[in-house]
Amino acid sequence: MKNASNILIPILIAILAVIAWALLNRPAEEPPWPNRLQGFSFAPMRAEHDPTIKNYPTTEEIDQDLALLQGTVHAVRTYTVESTLAATPGLAAARGLNVNLGAWIDDDFETNETELERLREILAKGYRNLVRVTVGNEAILRADVSVAELIDYLERVRKMTWLPVSTAEPWHVWLKHPELADHVDFITIHLLPYWEGVPIDQAVDYSIQRFNEVKQAFPGKEVIIGEVGWPSNGRRNRGAEASLANQTRFLRRFLAHAEQERYVYYVMEAFDQTWKTKIEGATGAYWGVYNTDREPKFAFTQPVVRIPHWQELAGISIVMAILLLVFVYRDSAMLSSKGKGFLALVMYGISTAAVWIVYDYTRLYMTPATAIVGVLLLVGGIGVIVLVMAEAHEWAESLWLRKWRRPFPRHSVPDEALPLVSIHVPAYNEPPELLRETLAALAALDYPRFEVLLIDNNTKDPAIWQPVQAECERLNAQPSGPRFRFFHVDPLAGYKAGALNYALRETDPAAEVIAVIDADYIVRPRWLRDLIPAFQDPQVAIVQAPQDYRDANQNAFKAMCMAEYRGFFHIGMVTRNERNAIIQHGTMTMIRRTTLAAVGGWAEWCITEDAELGLRLFEEGHKALYIPCTYGRGLMPDTFADFKKQRYRWAYGAVRILKHHRRELLGTRKTTLSAGQRYHFVAGWLPWFADGFNLLFNFAALAWSIAMVMFPLQVTPPYMTIALIPLVLFVFKISKSFLLYRRRVIATLRQSFAAGLAGLALSHTIARAMFGGLFSGKLGFYRTPKLARAPAFIKALADAREEALFVIAFWLAAGLMMLRYDSYMLDLRVWVAVLLVQSIPYFAAVVVSLISAAQSLPAQLVGPMQDMTDPDLLSKPSASNQDN
C-alpha cells in the first residue's frame, strides 16, 4: 500500500490538474466572422520595418499583403502617403479594394507640408477606388497640433478633392471639440475600449454606447468607425485583459452587431506591428488579426478557447510533474500519504506554472532584447524549480515523516568499556572569566576517562592567557587528577584548524575519540556518557549535538538570534541525518581519532574547517550521527555587525567547500558519496545561493525601474506572470518557515516571526558571501566577539548601511513607479509590489541592527525558547505524522 500511494496520489492529482486546465479553457460559442469585412486598418510593415526610422516595406511586399486581404474585406484604411506607401491606392485598385486614404499630421509642420503635397499628387491621379480621405490620426489627442491648426489642414484638403474628408480621433475628442464637425464631411471615431480599461464582457456594449453618443451629438453627419479592436497580448489595463481569446471575443461580438446595424468600420488592424512597442509599449505590437508572418491569429468560426491547444500543454505539464516526482519520491519510503500528496501538489504546481509561463513568453515577438531576457528567465526558472523542490522536500520530511530511519542509538556501556576522550578547546584572545566557566563545566563531566587540551593560539597579551593557564593548573590539583593541559602557541598558522591540528599532535596516544567545543561553551555533565556509546558502531566517525546558547535572556536581539539559530539545528540537520549527510560543526562534535588522522586532520585552507571535514569523511564512506538535543550552550554575537560577520564566514566557507569538492559532489570523481548525500550538500545550501542570485535580480529590478522612469513609453513593467514569481517564492518560503518553526522547533508565533526577521536580515550578507566565495579565495578568519559593547544608534545604522541604501532605492523606485502616467495598470502595481517585497530583507536588516543597539529591549518581547534537552522527545517525528 505504501508503494501504491507513490502511483495513486500522482494520478489523482494529475486528474485534478487536467480538470483545472479544462475548466480554464472551456470553449465558448461566439458569433462567426463576417464573410467580408467593411474595412481593415492597413499598415503593411513587417517585423523588420520601422516607419519611425523611415524603414518601409517594398511595393512588392505591400502588394502581397493586399493580395492576402483580397476577397476578405471591402476596403483598407491607410495612415500616410510617405515613401512606398504612396503606391497603396494603385496596388489596391488592382486587387479590387477600396481605400480610405490617410495623410499623417504631427508636430513637424515642414513634414506636414510635404505629406499634403504627396497627398495632392495621389488625388490628382484620380484613382476610382479612393472613397474617403482622412487628414491626421489622433493628432489632437497627442496634442501635436491645435484644433485651429487641424481645421486649417482639413479645409486645405477639402479644396483639393471632391472626396469626403475627415480626421480621426477617439470618440471623446469629438465630444470635447464639437467645432471640428463643421469642417469635415463625416466623423471618424476610434473605439478601443481596452485603452479605457473596460472589461471584455462590457466592451462591446460600451463601444456601441459611445458610438451612439457621438451620433446623437452630430445628427447631421455620418459617423464611421476608423479603428475598432482589441490586443491579443500585452499589459492588463485595469479591467481589460489583453489576450488572444479576448481579442477573438471582442471582434466577433462587435462585428456581428456592426454588420447587423450596417456600420462603416475599419478593424484595428490587419497585421501586428512590432515597431509600435516604441510608442505604445508591448501592447502596441498585438492589435493585428494576422501576425507578422501573415498567419491568422485565431479561429474565425470555431468556439473560442483561452488556450486553443491546452491539451498538449496540460500533457507536457503532467509529464514534467511526473519526472519531478520520480526524483523526489525516490527516497520517500518513510513519508506519509499527506507528505507525498503535498509534494505531488507542489510538483504539479511547479510544472503547470513553468509550462504556462513558457507558453506565454513564446507568444511574444522575439527581439534581441526579449531573446536575452528569455535565456536569463530560462536559467533563472530552472534555479527556481530546483529551489522550490528542495524547500518542499524539506517541508514534507519535517512535517510528514512517519518515523526516523536513523534514530540516535541509545547504548548502555559500562565505564570500563568507555574509550578515552580527548576534548580540544581552541581559544584566541578569549576573556579569562569566560574560559573559567568552560573549564569548570568540563571538570564536572560525568565520564570516567577524558583529557582536556586548551590551545591558546596567537593571543599576545599575557594578562589574558596566563590566568587561563593558572586555572588549568588549579583544576589538575583536584582529586580527579591532571586532566587539563594548556598550550600557548604564538605564532601558529591555520587559525582554528591550525590550533586543532596542533592539539591532535599533542593528544594522548590512548585517546580513541576527539571531542571539540568552542571556548565559550558550557557542556552538560552527561554529554560524553550519553553520546560516546554511539561509537560502538565501527562505521560511525562523527557524533554531533547541536549548537545552543545560554544568553538569549539578555535582550530582544539575542532572543531573536536564538530563535533563528534553532531552525537549522532542529529542521535542516534532522532531515540531513536521515541520509547520513549532516553538516559537521566545530563545537559539540566528536570524531573518531583514527579516522581523523587517516584523512589528514583539519583543513587549514578552509575557513569552515568543520563542515569540510565532515564532507571528506562522507567521501571516505564513514557514518555520522546527529541527536537534536542540547548538551552544551555557548554565547551568541553581541551585535548585529558580529552576527553578520559570523554568517558571512559560514556562507563564504560553504561556497569554498562546494568549489573545492565540486567533482566529488557532481560525481565526476569517484567517492562513496551516496545520491542522498550529494543532494543534501548541494540542495542544503541552495537557499544561500538563491540569496546571491536574488542580489543580481535586485540590481536588475532597480535598473529596469530606472529605465521605466526615464523612458516611460518605451519601457514597461515585466510581464505579470514573470513579476509574480518573486512574490510567490517569498510567500512560499515565509509560509514554510512559519509552519516548520511552529511544529519542529516548537516556537510560538512571536518566536517564529522573530526568527524570520533575523533570517531575512542576513540575506544581503549571505548574498555577498556567495559572490565572495565564488570569485575570491582569500578571507581572514572572523572570530565572533563575545561580551562586546553594544553599538550606539548611529553605529547600528552604519552596520546596516548597505541594506539601508537598498531600502531607500527600492522605496524610491516604487514611489516613482506610482507617479507614472500608467500607474493604474495592474502589471505596474504588481511590479511595485515586487519592489516593496524585495525591500523587506533589507528593511529587516536595518530593524534588527537597531534592535541590537537597543539592549534595554527585554528578551520577553520574543519569549524564551523551549528547552531542547529531552532526547526522547526530540528524536521523534511530529505527532501528526503518526496517522499513516
UniProtKB/TrEMBL annotation:
Enzyme class per UniProt: transferase
EC number of this enzyme: 2.4.1.336
Keywords recorded for this protein, A-Z: Glycosyltransferase, Magnesium, Membrane, Transferase, Transmembrane, Transmembrane helix
Topology of this chain in the membrane: Multi-pass membrane protein
Protein location: Membrane
One annotated GO molecular function: hexosyltransferase activity
Biological classification of the source: Bacteria, Pseudomonadati, Pseudomonadota, Gammaproteobacteria, Chromatiales
Entry's Gene Ontology cellular component terms: plasma membrane
Principal localisation: membrane
Membrane-traversing stretches: 7-24, 310-329, 341-359, 365-390, 719-741, 753-775, 804-821, 828-851
Protein name: Beta-monoglucosyldiacylglycerol synthase
PANTHER family: BETA-(1-3)-GLUCOSYL TRANSFERASE, CELLULOSE SYNTHASE CATALYTIC SUBUNIT A [UDP-FORMING]
Domain of life: Bacteria
Catalytic activity: a 1,2-diacyl-sn-glycerol + UDP-alpha-D-glucose = a 1,2-diacyl-3-O-(beta-D-glucopyranosyl)-sn-glycerol + UDP + H(+)
